[in-house]
Design brief:
By secondary structure, this protein is mainly beta. It folds into two domains: 35 residues, no CATH class; 116 residues, OB fold (Dihydrolipoamide Acetyltransferase, E2P) (Beta Barrel), CATH 2.40.50.100. Strand 3 and strand 4 form a beta hairpin.
Length: 156
């Protein structure tokens, strides 16, 4: 990759709404990430050309970053995965297909959890580590806002 191409890619990434991008061509691999505020825990999840990242809200975060129902949960030790962007939440790859995950499923690292569609781009979210789905919190085919709880999970 030429330096000029890298600068063009960086410029386009900076102007985009993406928070993370992985780009490959032959032997070249470029990963770009916009830095989050300190103290945030990331859940990187690649999605085709334009990966996004889900965020676990930190304790004491501002109301805009933490949805109203993200307070204490009935399941001790569970963590909440929230939407990193505004889009349509899909539990399955097609309307007639089975959901990627259900409550009680044990999910392996790299397995698809859901899809968020934003601006006609389907962002596939993958598990970063082995986990168990404690609850599916978002409704299929409905719009979600930034910070909307999607899943309650427990690390395995």
């Amino acid at each position: 990759m030429e330096l000029k191409e890298l600068y063009q890619l960086m410029d386009r990434f900076e102007k985009s709404g993406l928070s993370e991008l992985t780009w490959r061509r032959e032997k070249d691999l470029v990963r770009l990430r916009k830095g989050p505020p300190p103290g945030r825990h990331h859940w990187p999840v690649p999605a085709g050309f334009g990966p996004e990242q889900a965020v676990f809200p930190p304790p004491g975060a501002s109301p805009a970053a933490v949805p109203p129902d993200s307070g204490p949960r009935a399941n001790p030790g569970a963590e909440v995965i929230t939407a990193p962007l505004v889009g349509t939440f899909y539990r399955a790859p097609r309307p007639d297909a089975a959901p990627f995950v259900e409550k009680g499923d044990r999910v392996k690292k790299g397995q698809t959890l859901c899809i968020l569609e934003a601006m006609k781009l389907m962002n596939e979210f993958l598990a970063e580590f082995d986990l168990e789905i404690v609850a599916v919190l978002a409704e299929n085919a409905k719009m979600v806002e930034f910070g909307t709880p999607l899943f309650e999970v427990r690390k395995l």
